[in-house]
Fold these 4 entries.
Entry 1:
Amino acid sequence: MPITLSSRFVRRTALAGAAATLSIALAACGANFGAQTAKPYQAAEGTNADSGSIKVRNMLVLATADGKGQLHSAIVNDGSTDDTLVKIEQAPPGTQDGQAGGDQPGQVTFSKFAPIDLKAGTSTMLPPAAGEATASATPTETPSADPTATPTETPGGDASKGISVTGGKPGQMINVVITFGQAGPITTYIPVLTENHYSPTPPPAE
């Protein structure tokens, strides 16, 4: 006597087989070298980099099409010792840091500033909020025409309004060296975006 299977049993078996096949396919996709879960993900547009207890977070430049912009970042000091941000400048040609640089600008200039305090256990925003003191102004004596006059003290560059950047255009990457008072320097690429955080594709070189 031939054995017959109910249509319900046939459908249930077919569905179970399809589910098993799908799960195997998904497992294979998640295990290959291109799986998204195997890649580091940086949610912000800017660059993250560390030097000991100093953590640079979401560093980028917001600029206009003519290459005039401002540096933006949060710098976290999660150590127990105060530090300072001393300088940021374009890295010399040929400097390597292990990252793909994308479209490289020519000459880029960062405005000079007095050392910016990075207090232990705090986060410092660049540019600072209005009225927030960030610079450890190191006085320098300004010569006077009158030798008997008391020398005037003038601080270094003013970082209370931010650090301006000239020469980097939206869509480019700037290779920079970030120098601290105590922590070792960081060399890394930072992106240049438009003021609304949009990164256009640079036009082809003529």
Note: The CA atoms of residues 171 and 203 lie 9 Å apart.
Entry 2:
Amino acid sequence: MREIKFRGYDRFDQRWVYGYGLHQSIFIDGSSNAYVTAGIREVFIVDKESAGQYTGCKDANGKEIYEGDIVEKEIMESIFDDSKLIGVVKMIEGCWCVVNDKKKVAKNLWSETDVNRVIGNIYKNKELLEEE
């Protein structure tokens, strides 16, 4: 069974925080906060745009891959023009995928043959998606 974890960017401490719960509060005025829970008394307010779930996969360097990460995928058995795909990790119909909106391509994150490398995330490195 895979580990259920979440992460988010704590703007106050300027760092990524990791935990086992993700919650959102919506206030009467329409504003909202997102929270990552790391323990019984450990709750962090995070930017809701940065919050993401752990996929259960690690990249070629052993780094955990989270929803919202930007991944460079080397496709070993390529039917595409390129053998590389750069895209954002998203959940599509119950499957973690690497999605490139410009090329209109989505490829399963997990593969026995393909190699993934985390090169950034959509919260801090959106420019990586524009380069392709």
Note: Helices lie at 127-130.
Entry 3:
Amino acid sequence: MAEEYPSNSNRAKNDKPAAPEKKVEAVVSGGAKTRKKSEAKKLADTFISEDASNVKNP
């Protein structure tokens, strides 16, 4: 039965070899720009729920 479940001790966890670090590369070449929300979009987000279509369904 002991073979079915892995050990949960700290010693068993520390004996595992560490995974090599993944190489991270830039996705965007150049600077990325963020846009501010327009006043109309802010107003719509405030008063209109994202799940407004679910309100009418019982």
Note: The first helix runs from residue 10 to 15.
Entry 4:
Amino acid sequence: MLDPELVSVATGAAGTIVASMLTGGALAVRPRIAQLFRGGTQDEQALALNTHDNDARTLSEWVHAAASEPSAASDLARVQDQLTQEWVQRLAEYVDRHQEARPDLAAIASAGAVSSIESQHNSGSGTFVNGTVTGGIHNTYGGSSQ
């Protein structure tokens, strides 16, 4: 039986890993996975990185499919959930055997909690929407702010 606290941290880390695959940040999280698995065997290291690369390709294909066929969005969500659960299990079992990797697991989990501020500039006419809007919209084209 795995420690519930370990499973909780692994859940956060798995969420970060899978989310990075969905948002195009898979290459950015890959070194963190290598760092996490550095205490394992060469086979464990290779399996983790190969699995990451394969899962990133799979999710990329599903994202493209969902973009062109909206009915595929529910399948994308199902695949995302499945991969997240597989990563939770993989991470928790590995760190259970390699306790020295626990801080690396926590670092991956906390990386997902970091918020970012981004700026997007559009030109032309019409409505531009890209991603989720939180905290309101501030128009800078001379109109009033909302």
Note: The mean pLDDT is 83.
